[in-house]
Design brief:
328 residues; seven-stranded parallel beta sheet; alpha/beta; 13% strand; binds NADPH dihydro-nicotinamide-adenine-dinucleotide phosphate; 9 strands; two-stranded parallel sheet; 10 helices
Length: 328
C-alpha cells in the first residue's frame, strides 16, 4: 500500500487531498498542530481512516519523528498560513512557517525518507507584480506581500534540494482555488455566505473591497489537488503552474452569486475602501497552465460559472440559493 504524509491535513487542501488519496487506496498520515480544540471538521467522514500525528513545521525533530512513524512514499507540504493580507501583520511568523518550515520539512525528509516524493504548495503570489501575463513557470519571481516572499523562498529551496540532493521534490504554483471549506474571510466564500444570508433574511448588506479586482479563481479544489497527486508520480520532479487561466472580476462574482438567490446585487453590495488590498499589491495575476496540461494531462473540470452555482443541483428557489462556494 502506498503511504502518504500530508501536512496541513485539516485545512482546505489537506482534507480534500486525504479523501482523494484514501479513495485511491493510500494509507494516509496527517500532520496537525496540537490545538485547544481538536475537532478538525474538514476531516469529518475520513477521520477514522487518517492517522493523525502531532508535529509543527517549526520543530524539525517533531517532523523527523512523524516521518519515522509514517515512512511515507509521498509527502505533501500543504501547511502554511494561507490568508495573504494577514502576512503584513505577521511577516515574521509567515516567513517562519512558509519559508523556514518548508526547509525544515525538506531537511527532515532528506534525513529520514530520502526516496520519498515531495510536493510543496507554492503560490501565484510569488509573481506579485509580474512583468508578463499570463504567468508560467519561467515568469520572473516578483513577490510583493510577505506571504509571496516566503512562498518564493519555499519554491527556491525545493529547487535547491532537488539539485543538490537529488530529492524528488516538486512545487505546485497554485492560483486561487476555492471551496466551502475556505474560511469566511476569503472573498468567494464571503460572497456566497453573504448572498445566502441576505436571501434568508438574516442580513441586508454584503461589504467588499474592490469590485474591479480581477483574480484567477479556480476550483473546485479537488481539481488542483488531483493534478498535484499526479505531479508526484512524474518520473522527474518539476514545477507546475495550476490555474484557470481566466480572470473574473469581483463584480462578476457578486452578480453571479446574487443571481442564484434571485436578488439584484446592486441593492445589497457595499464597497468599503478600507478593505482594498491596494494597487501596490493587486496586479494582473493570471496563470498559464499549459505545461501541466501538456505533461500531466491536467484539465480544469469546472469553469467560473460552474464554480458559482447551486450546491445541490438545479436552480434554487428564491431564498434557497447557495453557491457551491457556499454556506453548507
Ligand atoms: P488552509 O489555511 O486551509 O490550511 C493550512 C493548514 O496548515 C491548516 O490546517 C493549518 O493548521 C496548517 N498549519 C499552518 N501552520 C502550521 C505549522 N506551523 N505546523 C503545522 N501545521 C500548520 O490552506 P489551504 O488548504 O487553502 O492551502 C494549502 C496550501 O496551499 C497552503 O500552503 C497555501 O499557502 C497554499 N496555497 C493555497 C491556495 C488556495 O487558493 N487555497 C493558493 C495558493 C497556495 P491550523 O488549523 O492549526 O492553523
Amino acid at each position: 500500500m502506498t503511504c502518504a504524509l500530508i501536512t496541513g491535513v485539516a485545512g482546505q487542501d489537506g482534507s480534500f487531498m486525504s479523501v482523494l488519496l484514501l479513495e485511491q487506496g493510500y494509507e494516509v498520515f496527517g500532520v496537525v498542530r496540537r490545538a485547544t480544540s481538536e475537532r478538525y471538521e474538514n476531516l469529518d467522514g475520513v477521520r477514522d481512516r487518517v492517522e493523525l500525528l502531532h508535529a509543527d513545521l517549526l520543530d524539525e525533530l517533531s517532523l523527523v519523528r512523524a516521518l519515522e512513524i509514517a515512512r511515507p512514499d509521498e509527502v505533501y507540504n500543504l501547511a502554511a498560513p494561507s490568508f495573504v493580507p494577514l502576512s503584513w501583520e505577521q511577516p515574521v511568523l509567515t516567513a517562519e512557517f512558509a519559508a523556514v518550515g518548508a526547509t525544515a520539512l525538506l531537511e527532515a525528509v532528506r534525513l529520514t525518507v530520502p526516496a520519498a516524493r515531495v510536493y510543496q504548495a507554492a503560490s501565484s503570489e510569488i509573481f506579485g507584480d509580474p512583468i508578463d501575463a499570463p504567468q508560467n513557470e519561467s515568469t520572473p519571481i516578483m513577490h510583493v506581500a510577505p506571504y509571496g516572499a516566503a512562498k518564493a523562498y519555499s519554491f527556491f529551496i525545493v529547487r535547491s534540494f532537488r539539485r543538490r540532493y537529488g530529492l524528488h521534490a516538486s512545487s505546485g504554483i497554485l492560483f486561487n482555488h476555492e471551496s466551502p471549506r475556505r474560511p469566511l474571510d476569503f472573498l468567494p466564500r464571503k460572497v456566497a455566505h453573504g448572498a445566502a444570508r441576505i436571501a434568508l433574511g438574516l442580513g441586508l448588506t454584503l461589504t467588499v473591497g474592490d469590485l474591479d479586482a480581477l483574480p484567477d479563481w479556480g476550483g473546485p479544489v479537488a481539481t488542483s489537488l488531483g493534478r498535484s497527486r499526479r505531479r508526484t508520480q512524474q518520473e522527474e520532479p518539476d514545477d507546475y503552474v495550476i490555474a484557470s487561466g481566466e480572470t473574473h472580476s469581483v463584480r462578476e462574482l457578486v452578480e453571479c452569486a446574487f443571481e442564484h438567490v434571485w436578488l439584484d446585487w446592486r441593492e445589497h453590495v457595499e464597497v468599503d475602501e478600507s478593505l482594498l488590498r491596494g494597487k501596490a499589491e493587486l496586479h494582473n495575476l493570471v496563470g498559464d497552465a499549459s505545461k501541466a496540461r501538456d505533461r500531466l494531462g491536467w484539465e480544469r473540470s469546472v469553469d467560473f460559472t460552474g464554480l458559482v452555482q447551486p450546491a445541490r443541483g438545479g436552480r434554487p428557489r428564491p431564498a434557497e440559493g447557495v453557491s457551491r462556494l457556499g454556506v453548507w
